[in-house]
Amino acid sequence: MNVVKFVMVLWLMALVRNESCAQISTSKFQFEHLTINEGLPHSDAMCVVEDNLGFIWVGTNDGIARYDGFELKKYKLPVNPLNGLTSNRIQVFHKQNNGTLWYGAERAGLGYYDVNKDKFVNISENLSSAVDKSTVQLLRKASILSITTDQSNHLYACSRDGVFVLTLGNNQVLEKITRVAILGNQLQYTANEVILDSKQQVWIATVNQGLFLLSSSQQTQAQKAPFPSETVRAIQFDSKGNLWLGADTKLYFISPAEQKEFKNFTLHQASTSIEDMECISIDSFHRLWVGTNFGLYCWEDIREPIRVLENKPQLFLPKDDNPNSINSGRVHQVYEDANHILWLAASAGGLNKVDLKRKPFENLQRRFFQTPTLPNNYVNAVLKDPQHNWLWIGTRNGFSRYDFDTKSYTNYANRELNGDATGTDVSTLLMDTKRTLWVGTRYNGLYVLQNGALKKINLPIPSTSIESIIETSDGFIWIATFEYGILKLDKAGKVLNIYSTNNHNLLARQFTHLLYDKTKEQIWASTRDMGVLLFQIQTNGLKLLQKFSFEENNPNSLSVNFAWQKVQDPSGAIWVGTIGGGLNKIEPLKNGQYLVRRINIPESNVEGILQDKQGNIWIGGSGLGRYSPKSGQWIHYDVADGIQSNSFKVGAAYQDASGILYLGGIKGVTYFNPEKIQPSLQAPTVRFTNLKIFNQTVQIGEEINHRVILPAPFNQLDELEIQANENDFSIEFVGLNFANPAKTSYAYKLQGYNSQWVYVGSNARIANFANLPSGYYKLYVKAYNGEGQWSKIETVTIHILPPWYQTWWAYLLYLGLIIAGLYLYRKITLRHQKLQNELSLETYKTEKEKELTDLKLRFFTNVSHELRTPLTLILGPLEEMITMPSPFRSKLLLVHQQSKKLYDLVNQLLEFRKVESGHISISASKDNIIPMLSEILLIFQLKSEEQQIEYTIDLPQEEVELFFDSSKIEIILTNLLSNAFKYTASGGKIQVTVRTVGNSSEKALFEQNHLSNHYLEISIQDNGVGMEASALSQIFDPYFQASHTETMKLVGTGIGLSLVKQFVEAHHGEILVQSEIGKGTTFTIKLPYGSAHLKPEEITQNAPKELTWLQNPPQALQNIDTNHDASHGQKVLIVEDHPEVRQYIQKLFESHYQTFTAIDGQDGLEKANHLMPDLIISDVMMPHVDGLELCRKLKQNPKTSHIPVVLLTARSAAAHQIEGLENGADEYLSKPFHPQLLQTKVQNLLHNRLLIRDYYQRQILLQPSAVSIPDDTKTFLEKAMKIVEENLSNQDFNVQELVKAMAMSQSGFYRQIKSITGQSVVEFIRDIRLKRAAQLLTSTDLRVQEVATIVGIEDAKYFRKMFQQIYQYAPSEYAKIHKNAK
Fold first, then answer.
1. Beta-ladder partners of 997
2. DSSP helix/strand/coil, 361
3. Which sign, positive or negative, has the C-alpha torsion 372, 376, 378, 384?
């Protein structure tokens, strides 16, 4: 026997070697492995079975494990008390018809799985009283090798101690046990296997005793079958009733007729000898599998057994160079589950899994034991030879030709090194019409293969990456390079032209892929950074027809500009794969245009793209994806489905004439027939697997806190009851899908808590819940197989018990407490009434005192009323006098400022009186508060510069809608900011911050009468002198003034902060203060959102003031004389952020001027520099850059300092107007303005500018002037002209010399000249030189060259050009005309 085994081993080794070398074919079976490395209890898996719930159970030499596709749950059995041996060496599993799972162990008998306790129980622990105890003890020590059951609830267990027959009652109670005798009354023998036939007869395979049959009527005596072999190792029935036997080294079958006759079986045996058979299995596809100690055998279709036995089987053995081969030669059991997954229990290999319905993906990969083999697994290009059954493969180590007929490789341009070596990086392949193979490489040039000879083509460009090669119908070769554009070659390899950015305006030089449209003679070119370019092939080159690229905010543009491989479908549409932007489609329209659509798929890097004959788009990227344009369905395939790896490479995709698709990646080439790759229709089966409370696993039947939480498995559970102190739990689940578990995704929802499904991936198979309200809930879970199929929904009912304080006895206790409380309340009320009487007396005294105070306050208010009249009479004349020219204007402004301040104080006193008398009210309307805040805060900008205080404002960028009274808000901010500037020294800091708390669209939330959410917060912080903590509680009291420092002189009335507090509270807001001596003070105002806090009478629905005056249509300029200038040539720039106002003003002036508009200050500044308008009309309050800042920047820029600026604002206070004028504004109008007033002011400003320029031009041309301009302007011009005329002959006289002579700064002088003449200083000097030249030409006989030299211009050509530009004649013609005139 040992000699035979030795010979068999030698024969198998030779077989393995020959098979490895020949590489006959890529097996359609791929083996996946579940070993001890993945958590299996032991390296030896001995048996496997599927239970009724769909879980896979694995018996090993160290216990049992339940597998759900992701996790292994381990079970350990106790030591056998009868012999002290372990019970964990499991030999066999059997599933009874009722679903009970039975196991057989080595030297430990048999047992079953108790689902209600989630543990395995030995049958000796569940006996009836009448059972034979001695036979049970023998069974308890037996090694069980095979188990079967019949419909009469009999269990047959074969062992090395014979066959035991067990009669089972309810709940697997052993009611009777007997032993089967053979050959008379022989009870002790070794039985390898028992199996039940369709007639409920039991066949017994024994060692050295033969084959026996036990009839259903006879349970104790077996009849020997007429089968010659004495040792039968394995038996199995097929679907036709044929009995297959493994005996000695032969495989036999016995037909049903012979079984029935039971006489002289005909020996139908296989031609192949098989050593040490362990098991026989027949799958759903009629394959016969035989597991042995020397490999796994497989016969294809056995529906005709006679023919099958004549064929040689396929032998599966471990292969070192193939990770998808079987990993062990010792196969103990072959088992097929309900989903057609074949499970192999193997020694040292654990559990092997074979998907009998796997996707027929085939791979070409490097084999370490094959010579030659693929030179490198990293594939960049694939090409099917149209005439031969060859596949050309470009790799990082040359390229290879694979012959599908001989299964062999022929390699080219590769380095012969051990391992996955790199060398010539082949990037693209083309077989032209003359069967010349063009080979493009990355930075190693271009090659052609002709008649087996490889030749390099010399290219007139530096080394580059050749990414794509095509041939057009005229026979020319076009090559896309990654740095130097597109090359055009003839068939001989001669470069005819190079198309790039520097010689053909090609827009791009980095090309990645070319697609040739033969019907239109067009080339679609993908680029690295310019998207896709469409070229028309012409005789003299390429003509760019259209560019398709990424456009911001345009969904009908490419998603990114990095495009690579493309494919054209039958409709002419181009499918574009991009790197980083997924899939795009360029569709031709009937009008000749194209529409670009972005296709929503999960894959962002489309590295390979093909379209099958059914119209599906196949995409290689991170795995392989199939997109259906008709349904929009996306199906993803990964390495577990049989593809080469989860990484495919750019451009390595090809479709042959028969429709086979080839895609290359980092582990070789995957090829397949797309018609045979169909989505799986098998939906996962959802099962609940585990319960955790406070992250601790709860076992079935386990008692926790004196109660059983999980009394049964989830599938048998009526409801899951959770107590209040357990209300932090999680339920784990799984979708049983063993074909590819990682593709399974899940969705769950808890009815009664959330109505929306929660979608999770395969690694998040758990639903967590905490602090659920008491009541009944139902958890729904479903699973998705990743290929279009959702499972049935699995549910579990959950009952959350209420806490003790919500139970009936707790409510009874509450009732008792209420009664006691009422009694106590009555007692306290009587005592309170006594105190209230005493308080009433004190209140009476207080009211009398208040009446006296009111009398005094009324007198004070009356005096204030009387002060308003004389103040009004003072302010009116003052404002008129300020507008008149006067040497006392500055003093008048001071008087006006102080009078206005006194007037404001009187108004505050009157407001204070209203507050004191309880008559305060607000008129709140909903508006965006940010512009008003910004304008009020900006008023103090000038004050901060004067006091040298760092003044910063932080406002939200978005609009903030709020109900507020603008007049009250202005008083609030003015008072607070005035105090901040008053008590902050020079060099200090004041920070104003406005921020949104919560959501402005929600109503404000109050907790205990304080704002808690949804409000606007305004903070004014200074680092001034600060206040003592003791004073903070009194600062809002009337007439109170905090003592800041001993040296600071206190000014004011002490009523400002009192008004602030009252106005804030009138808005139902809050004001807080924080202060510290020497560190400063912070006031924080909170104004609530919404209108729920306001009374109806406090809300007004007035339209925004700024727009009411727009309701009247604008009228053109009227009654204004415009004949004195060419107004239609003058430019007016209107800067206004509100579109309606902007349009209104534009209509006022568009009939007489060229009008331009800008949407904000930044836009206005840019357009002013570009357009150089004659006048600018600007709003003050605008985003980004406001009107004041715009005016300041225009006046500081010499180029634009002369442009008149008219400022418009909704704020009409004189302080605002003064600030605008101080920033350089020429006019300042308040909104709403009178349109004719604005038109007149604009007309006058432009007219005055023209008068000044007219005077200048007349003086230059020596013509009489009737223009009247201010004396100071005329004096300034005459002085400047005189200095220039005195230095005419000085060629070195320049701008700096003139500025120095005028005793002015260069920028100041520049602004003056530009404002008066509209010219730069250089132009001013030039015109004066030309004026003198005109004098000399008309009054002397000097030549033109001499005149030019006298006026300081040496270049005669330049002199003639400038002279003609000013005087419209050449110098000689000008002299002739004017001399003749004399």
1. 1015
2. coil
3. negative
Retrieve residue 411's tokens.
């390699």
Model confidence at 660: pLDDT above 90? yes
- The answer to whether 234 and 193 have CB atoms below 8 angstroms apart is yes
Domain 685-806 sits in CATH at: 2.60.40.10
1210 and 1110 in contact (C-beta within 8 Å)? no
Domain 1106-1252 has CATH 3.40.50.2300: yes
DSSP 1151: T
**Spacing of C-alpha 373 from chain mean position:** 43
Type of residue found at 1251? L
Report the C-alpha gap between 906 and 566 in whole angstroms. Answer: 80
Measured over all CA atoms, what is the biggest interatomic distance in the chain, rounded to whole angstroms?
161
Beta bridge partners of 715: none
Give me the residue spans of the domains in the chain.
361-458, 685-806, 926-1089, 1106-1252, 1270-1381
DSSP-derived 3-state class of residue 90: strand
Please, which residues bridge with residue 1133 across strands? 1156, 1176
Of the candidates 7, 24, 4, 66, the residue with the CA atom closest to the CA atom of residue 41: 66
CA distances from 260 to 197, 264, 1028 (A): 11, 11, 113
Which CATH fold would you assign to the domain 361-458?
Thrombin, subunit H (2.40.10)
Q: 680 has which bridge partners? A: none
User: What is the Cα Rg of the chain in Å?
Assistant: 50
Is the Cβ–Cβ distance between 206 and 225 less than 8 Å?
no
Structure confidence by residue, pLDDT tens digits, 1190-1204: 888 887 776 777 788
Buried b (16+ CB within 10 A) or exposed e, 707-738: eebbbebbeebeebbbbbebbebbbbbbbbbb
Q: CB neighbours of 466 closer than 8 A, spacing ≥ 6?
A: 427, 428, 440, 441, 442, 446, 479, 480, 481, 482
| pLDDT tens digits along 985-1029 | 888 999 999 999 999 888 889 888 889 899 999 999 999 888 888
* DSSP symbols for 200-234: S-EEEEESSS-EEEE-TT-SSBPEEPS---S-EEE
Specify the CATH class of 1270-1381 in words. Answer: mainly alpha
Q: Are strands 341-346 and 350-355 parallel, antiparallel or unpaired?
A: antiparallel
CA distance 39 to 71: 8
d(CA 289, CA 279): 8
Which residues neighbour 1179 within 8 Å (Cβ) at sequence distance 6 or greater? Answer: 1135, 1136, 1137, 1138, 1141, 1187, 1207, 1208, 1209
Alpha-carbon distance 246 to 227, whole Å? Answer: 12
pLDDT digits (tens, 9 = 90+) for 897-914: 677 767 766 766 666 566
The CATH classification number of 926-1089 equals 3.30.565.10
Q: Identify which of 534-538, 1101-1105, 1235-1239 has the greatest average pLDDT.
A: 534-538
Average pLDDT of the residues of the chain: 86
The residue-averaged pLDDT of 1227-1256 equals: 76
858 Cα distance to chain centroid = 68
Distance separating alpha carbons of residues 446 and 458, to the nearest angstrom:
7
Task: Give the angle subtended at the CA of 563 by the CAs of 558 and 569, to the nearest 5°.
Answer: 80
Backbone angles phi, psi at 887, to 5 degrees: -70, -15
Q: What is the 3-state secondary structure (H, E, C) of 1190-1252?
A: HHHHHHHCCCCCCCCEEEEECCCCHHHHHHHHHCCCCEEEECCCCHHHHHHHHHHHHHHHHHH
Q: Which strands sit side by side in the sheet containing 685-693, from one edge to the other?
A: 696-698, 685-693, 728-736, 766-770
CB under 8 A, 24+ apart: contacts of 1347-1354: 1347/1371, 1350/1288, 1350/1289, 1351/1288, 1351/1289, 1352/1287, 1352/1288, 1352/1289, 1352/1290, 1352/1291, 1352/1293, 1353/1329, 1354/1291
Q: Are 652 and 619 in contact (CB under 8 A)?
A: no
CA 1285, CA 921: separation in Å to the nearest integer? 71
